[in-house]
Design a protein that fits this description.
CATH topology of the largest domain: Rossmann fold
Mean pLDDT: 81
Number of helices: 16
InterPro entries: Caspase-like_dom_sf, DUF4384, Metacaspase, Pept_C14_caspase, TAT_signal
Low-confidence stretches: 1-29, 297-312, 317-325, 339-346, 582-588, 721-727, 729-733
Pfam family, one: DUF4384
Number of strands: 39
Radius of gyration: 26 Å
Largest sheet: 6 strands, mixed
GO molecular function: cysteine-type endopeptidase activity
Strand order of the largest sheet: 2-1-3-9-13-16
Structural class: alpha+beta
């Protein structure tokens, strides 16, 4: 299975929801539904946000309080919640996240206050687990997994056992059954539950922590609910005036109210990860970041396809694991919540990446919850944000001077009237930092043993690699290490179908110690030989990393460019932010192997642009698609205002190869010719004796040369716009190129190839 095929939106995630009997639907339709529910005009919007890092009787977590802040800022500034209507129960709130307080807050803040048609949100970030179910379900999902006798739980702050008797360990967890009953007491149907937790794989893996309670019990012991939990369930059933049989029957049908989102399926992991200067749940961070950037112009079908496609894109490649993990999502049984337009309305505020939170004199502080983690590292100084009014009109600009406390930035106003700077005003990226000297982040794993010093010396001589201490490697980096028996056991438990490397072989691991596909060599390979073998892999990962960052920035361009990829009766449409609306047909979009593709690109801008198109194979190799005349590439790349470019030209074809995977078409439309890039490609063509035609299999030093040339073009683009600029530095002190998003649109069309 190719590396790209396993890149899914919510990497490390795992979910309690799956053990509640929820069917697996596509998360991205759910995310769209969640966004549209929140955007409705309702009498009131209520939220209860629970986050727990500091546990008693379970391993500590790092990112759950960040999750709460991510969700709170999203709800207030993007969806119009009042801060007084958001109740927070967390380690640092007045109301601590004990079992009693979580239930009390649910009752008093949500059940007692919510009226019919109100919007209600319950978010939980913390440990999950599963315990013996006194009234087990009998549904297909649990029968297939062989665990119908268990019920998923969320774990309050005090996770220590209440009582231990023989083989049974009594715990004070809150069961899925209890959440079902509490939810049933709500008077509104417009309820959203989000659980960023899981019940398997507890402990630390590499530089991440799994959100499952570490069980300090014997292997023959089972967890059982506390007497308080069972008594509460009886009280709730009585309040609902249900019989026990009716309760069980209702549980069999699915969730009680609204919609429910969970981190992943029942056997997957919810990960607490280190991003660029902050910890967060991967599920919550990526969900909220997506909702910050959600536009009102796209129908639900387009959102569904765009998000499903983007999970396999270079833009999110290092924010998703190579393990194929999809979150869980379900609508209330018998409802039409998934239908448009009955319950889900367009958003009322413009898409953005940040929001002003504090104004003190000339110092402006803003929340960066919608900014991609790749951009955070390089935007410490020199990043520029456009300030938007309520209609989305640009009314001022802010230049960032620093980033503080993880997701907060500070800066000052550089243009516009001072009255335009207000708390709550949304910000959109205008200039972001792109590394001028990009490097691949690596850390050496202790499994290398006696080879650590040799590996360090060898890698330090590579100017394209930056070595980090193990505990400082972010989610975008890799470990170099040996595959051990411990790794083998760990990975076999997570994914028994995954083809694992040989024990003692050297290769790359992702930040959670998942082995990087096809990076491991033969047994007892000398460390220097292994590093030399991996050099092309290092180069490919670095190339894709930079292309991904460029894509993150270029997708927000105000240039009006759209494209359509078609073949075999399938149509996939993508567009820059400057395009008002793009409708997508055929869900999901899949292309059969050997399909003949056609690509149509429209320049709806009022200016001439220059067009270049790259195809990144499912294996990560670079290929050119346009231009193809290497005697005059600049002339061929001209893309006139209003022009519709249809490719490939008559007499040529583009055929999808391979039986499966996710190749990606990158479309670059720039205000000025990408002369350095075209020159680098010309040189590759000359070395191959080609004067025309697509260049295929560009890899290694060739691909790095193309990327270096593209970075040079970004510098020239910035100069052409404003006649000069001051290069900034990222948080590591490395030089950055201030990339103005309006100078180039970068579109991504990820194609799912099936046999």
């Amino acid at each position: 299975m190719s590396q790209l095929k396993r890149r899914h939106f919510l990497q490390f995630a795992g979910s309690t929801l799956a053990t509640l009997g929820l069917s697996q639907l596509d998360f991205f339709r759910g995310a769209e539904g969640y966004g549209r529910v929140l955007a409705q005009s309702t009498p009131r919007k209520l939220a209860l946000l629970v986050g727990i890092n500091e546990y008693q009787g379970a391993n500590q977590l790092n990112g759950c309080l960040t999750d709460v802040e991510l969700q709170k800022n999203l709800l207030i500034h993007r969806f119009g919640f009042k801060s007084d209507d958001i109740k927070i129960v967390s380690d640092n709130s007045d109301m601590k996240p004990t079992r009693e307080n979580i239930i009390k807050a649910f009752r008093e803040h949500l059940i007692k206050q919510a009226k019919p048609n109100d919007v209600v949100v319950f978010h939980y970030s913390g440990h999950g687990d599963r315990i013996q179910d006194p009234s087990p379900l009998n549904i297909e999902a649990c029968r297939l997994a062989g665990d119908c006798s268990f019920n998923g739980t969320i774990v309050p702050q005090n996770a220590a056992p209440v009582n231990i008797e023989a083989s049974e360990v009594e715990v004070s967890h809150i069961m899925g059954q209890t959440l079902f009953l509490l939810t049933s007491l709500l008077q509104t149907e417009k309820f959203t539950m989000i659980l960023d937790s899981c019940h398997s794989g507890a402990g630390t893996r590499g530089n991440v922590v799994v959100r499952a309670a570490r069980r300090q019990v014997g292997s023959e012991q089972i967890l059982v609910p506390s007497s308080s939990e069972l008594e509460l369930q009886k009280e709730l059933i009585a309040e609902l005036n249900w019989s026990d049989d009716e309760f069980l029957k209702r549980r069999q049908t699915g969730i009680a109210k609204g919609i429910a989102l969970g981190s992943a399926q029942r056997n997957q992991l919810a990960i607490d990860a280190l991003f660029e200067g902050f910890h967060a749940g991967v599920f919550t961070y990526l969900l909220t970041r997506y909702l910050w950037q959600l536009t009102s112009e796209q129908p639900v079908e387009a959102i569904y396809v765009n998000l499903k496609r983007s999970t396999n894109s270079l833009a999110t490649a290092k924010e998703s694991t190579i393990r194929q993990q999809l979150p869980t999502f379900e609508y209330q049984a018998g409802s039409d919540f998934k239908q448009e337009p009955l319950f889900f309305l367009d958003l009322k505020t413009p898409a953005s990446e940040a929001v002003i939170t504090t104004v003190k004199g000339e110092t402006i502080e803003f929340w960066l919850g919608g900014v991609a983690s790749q951009n955070l590292k390089t935007s410490g100084e020199g990043a520029v944000y456009s300030v938007l009014d309520e209609s989305g009109k640009v009314v001022a600009e802010i230049q960032q001077n620093s980033r503080v406390e993880g997701l907060f930035g500070r800066g000052k106003q550089t243009s516009g009237d001072s009255s335009a700077i207000k708390v709550g005003r949304l910000l959109r990226e205008k200039i972001v930092g792109i590394p001028a000297n990009p490097k691949l982040e690596l850390a050496l794993d202790e499994s290398l043993g006696a080879d650590l010093a040799t590996a360090q010396a060898e890698l330090e001589s590579n100017r394209r690699i930056e070595l980090f201490p193990q505990n400082q490697l972010s989610e975008s980096g890799y470990f170099l290490g040996r595959f051990t028996e411990e790794h083998q056991q760990q990975q076999s438990e997570i994914n028994p179908d995954l083809e694992l490397p040989a024990v003692s072989s050297v290769g790359l691991f992702q930040a959670d110690l998942t082995p990087e596909s096809q990076s491991f060599g033969r047994l007892d390979e000398p460390i220097v030989n292994a590093i030399n073998r991996l050099k092309p892999r290092f180069q490919r990962l670095l190339v894709n990393q930079i292309l991904g960052q460029l894509l993150n920035a270029g997708q927000g361009s105000t240039l009006k460019v759209k494209a359509e990829v078609s073949g075999g009766g399938q149509v996939l449409q993508v567009a820059s932010r400057g395009i008002d609306e793009v409708k997508t047909a055929n869900i999901p979009v899949q292309f059969r192997s050997e399909t003949q593709l056609k690509v149509q690109v429209n320049n709806e801008s009022n200016q001439d642009l220059y067009l270049a198109i790259l195809l990144i194979s499912a294996q990560g190799d670079m290929n050119t698609f346009h231009p193809t005349n290497w005697d005059a590439p600049e002339e061929e790349s001209l893309f006139s205002a209003g022009e519709v470019k249809e490719l490939p030209p008559p007499g040529e074809s583009l055929e999808l190869t391979g039986t499966s995977g996710f190749p990606e078409i990158l479309i670059l439309a720039s205000q000025e010719p990408l002369r350095n890039t075209l020159k680098a490609l010309q040189q590759i063509a000359a070395s191959r004796g080609q004067s025309r035609g697509r260049l295929e299999g560009i890899r290694g030093d060739e691909s790095l040369g193309v990327i270096d040339s593209l970075l040079g073009d970004l510098t020239e683009l910035k100069r052409s716009v404003d006649g000069g600029f001051r290069q900034g530095t990222d948080e590591s002190g490395q030089g950055t190129i201030p990339y103005q998003t309006s100078t180039m649109a970068v579109l991504s069309a990820v194609l799912e190839v099936v046999a």
